[in-house]
Design a protein that fits this description.
The complex is a heterodimer of chains A (422) and B (120).
Chain A (H helix, E strand, L loop, with lengths): L2 E9 L3 H12 L5 E4 L15 E3 L8 E2 H15 L2 E3 L2 E6 L4 E6 L3 E12 L3 E3 L2 H4 L2 E2 L5 E3 H11 L6 E5 L3 H12 L3 E7 L8 H8 L6 E3 L1 E8 L3 E8 L12 E4 L2 E4 L3 E3 L2 H5 L24 E3 L10 H17 L10 E5 L3 E5 L2 E2 L9 E7 L3 E10 L2 E11 L5 E5 L1 H4 L8 E6 L3
Parallel strand pairs in A: 1-2, 1-8, 2-5, 8-20, 10-15, 11-18, 12-13, 12-18, 13-14, 21-28
Antiparallel strand pairs in A: 3-4, 6-7, 7-8, 9-19, 15-16, 16-17, 21-23, 22-24, 24-27, 25-26, 25-28
Helix pairs in contact in A: 1-2, 1-8, 4-5, 5-6
Chain B lengths: L1 E6 L8 E7 L2 E6 L4 H12 L2 E2 L2 E7 L5 E6 L3 E2 L3 H8 L3 E3 L7 E3 L9 E3 L6
Parallel strand pairs in B: 5-8
Antiparallel strand pairs in B: 1-2, 2-3, 4-7, 5-6, 6-10, 9-10
Classes of the chains: A alpha/beta (422), B alpha+beta (120).
Chain lengths: 422, 120
């Protein structure tokens, strides 16, 4: 088997992979190759026909397909190579990559640096363990989205949506616009994890009810799903006896969370952060294996494609410079304190001078008003970022300028936490 | 007199804005906390409009659906009627992003355009 030499090899041709590849190519990497398992680049954006993309990155309101189109065209213009219909089988710590495809058979690539951009996948019925029979008609919201928006099949006529994440909300509207009856969106938590805009424009606009603190506890049906039992839950999310309701439906859509897709990352030997479910990365999005970078939803599940692009450019730039760059110095760990679920990056090299502000992304544990996000070192409060409102459904991005970084000790771990508020 | 309420979607704070309308005209509005929020709420109370995104049938490619959008917001009450028109469309590749599929749909001044390139 011949070995192909690549400067920057990108696994995955969605927004993260394309963004990283373009940035790497624009910053001196000569041979940049994106490997994509679908028959075209674009990733999940190809089925995101709705608008709301690009407001931050392009200052224009684009659909997912238009957002992807801009990157696919730019990849072509900058000389990024994209090989589609290709499945990556293995990524080794030595940066050797093995692939399989109908057209090229087995291939081996040796890369100077690798960017992991495999994205994430949806949690299924099994992940949330709904009791009952196993009929057809139960889909993850994203699968139903692909059927409807790309392949031209409406998954059913009478729909229950479980989970109020953005995909669930958007699919509730999509099904309604295609003429389905949407019985309601059920959410286990006391608040929705979707953007407020989607609650208004996807549910309220079409009088689709949102049932908070309610979940699906049982599924009925023979060959096809016939209905579900819904139940209210208490504060600990346990179903309350006596609140059961039978809701007839022929389709159940699940929008119950996303899991970063890291099988290849594990093969590559990179450490995974149990909080994010993605590779542990530093400020350049380099994983714990030198020369292997990661960006996009494989690192943390982002709310917006625009944020994925920002992260992919950090990774692409660093991947292009990896061969020439000095080996990284000592890194400080970023510790997750009170009120936060996770912080990305998980490690920062504080000694290196930087012109660009350092971006820290994090998710809150609970919705709260008027809080401070505090950065401390050794128990000493160093920096404070006031936030008018935080909620788990919307990523918090802090921009730490080089001046602010000057306040920090270069050899000490930093801790982030939420303080004050109600 | 008619009382209406909405949640502002301009930022994550999510202010609850309430208004009094008389014959569709805004008389009183309060609850917003910024100028953008006021502008959003005023329009939302009097003439809500939305970008519509959907798909239409297309032949000659590995996918059977072409994503389309309105190139400007449509009056909200018209969305279902526009969907019915789109269901009748049958297109063929190649199509370019931005290509007009239906001009001035239902006399709204908005065009339905393709939202991706699609070739064989």
């Amino acid at each position: 088997m011949k070995t192909y030499e690549i400067d920057v090899l990108v696994v995955g041709g969605g927004p993260a992979g394309l963004g990283a590849a373009i940035k790497a190519r624009e910053n001196g990497a000569r041979k940049v190759l994106v490997l994509e398992r679908d028959f075209e680049p674009g990733g999940i954006l190809n089925q995101c026909i709705h608008n709301g993309f690009g407001l931050q990155y392009f200052s224009a309101e684009l659909t997912g397909t238009e957002y992807a189109g801009r990157f696919i065209r730019r990849a072509g213009q900058t000389g990024v190579e994209i090989q589609t219909d290709t499945m990556v089988l293995d990524v080794k710590p030595s940066r050797e990559v093995i692939t399989s495809s109908a057209k090229y058979g087995l291939q081996r690539f040796q890369a100077k640096s690798i960017v992991l951009a495999m994205g994430c996948r949806e949690r299924t019925r099994d992940a949330i363990q709904i009791y009952g029979s196993r009929p057809s008609g139960i889909f993850t919201a994203g699968t139903a989205q692909r059927f409807t928006n790309i392949e031209g099949f409406i998954p059913g006529r009478q729909v229950v949506v479980l989970g109020s994440g953005d995909i669930g909300l958007i699919m509730a509207r999509r099904m309604k616009l295609e003429g389905c009856e949407v019985q309601g969106v059920y959410e286990l938590l006391p608040y929705t994890n979707g953007l407020s805009r989607n609650v208004v424009q996807c549910l309220n606009d079409f009088s689709i009810p949102l049932y908070l603190q309610q979940t699906v506890t049982s599924i009925y049906g023979g060959e096809r799903i016939a209905g579900v039992t819904t139940q209210k839950v208490d504060k600990k999310q346990n179903p309350l006896p006596g609140t059961e309701e039978y809701v007839p439906c022929d389709t159940l859509l699940l929008s119950v969370g996303l899991i970063p897709e890291n099988e290849l990352s594990r093969k590559a030997g990179v450490r995974i952060d149990s909080r994010t479910g993605g590779p542990l990365v530093d400020q350049n999005r380099m994983t714990t294996v030198p020369g292997i970078f990661a960006c996009g939803n494989v690192v943390q599940v982002h709310d917006l494609a625009d944020d994925v692009t920002v992260e992919s450019e950090i990774a692409g730039l660093a991947a292009a410079g990896f061969a020439e760059e000095e080996p990284p110095g000592k890194k400080a760990r970023v510790l997750v304190g009170n009120g936060l679920r996770y912080v990305v990056p998980q490690e920062i090299e504080l000694s290196r001078n930087r012109e660009e502000p350092l971006l820290l992304f994090m998710r809150a544990e609970l919705p709260r008003r008027k809080v401070n996000i505090v950065i401390s070192q050794g128990g000493m409060e160093k920096l404070k970022f006031p936030q008018p409102f935080i909620k788990p459904g919307e990523i918090i991005a802090l921009s730490v300028t080089s001046e602010m970084l000057g306040e920090l000790e270069i050899d000490q771990d930093i801790e982030l936490k939420v303080e004050g508020g109600g | 007199m008619e009382e209406k309420k909405l949640i502002c979607v301009i930022c994550p704070v999510g202010c609850e804005v309430s208004a009094t309308l008389e014959d569709g005209e805004l008389k009183d509005i309060n609850g917003y906390r910024c100028a953008q929020g006021e502008e959003y709420a005023r329009e939302e109370f009097t003439s809500p409009s939305r970008i519509l995104t959907a798909t239409v049938w297309i032949k000659g490619s590995r996918v059977s659906q072409l994503p389309v959008r309105s190139n400007r917001p449509l009056p909200r009450p018209k969305l279902e009627e526009v969907m019915a028109l789109l269901a009748r469309e049958k297109l063929e590749v190649p199509i370019k992003e931005g290509q007009i599929i239906i001009e001035n749909i239902l006399g709204t001044g908005a065009d339905i355009v393709s939202s991706r390139d699609l070739e064989k």
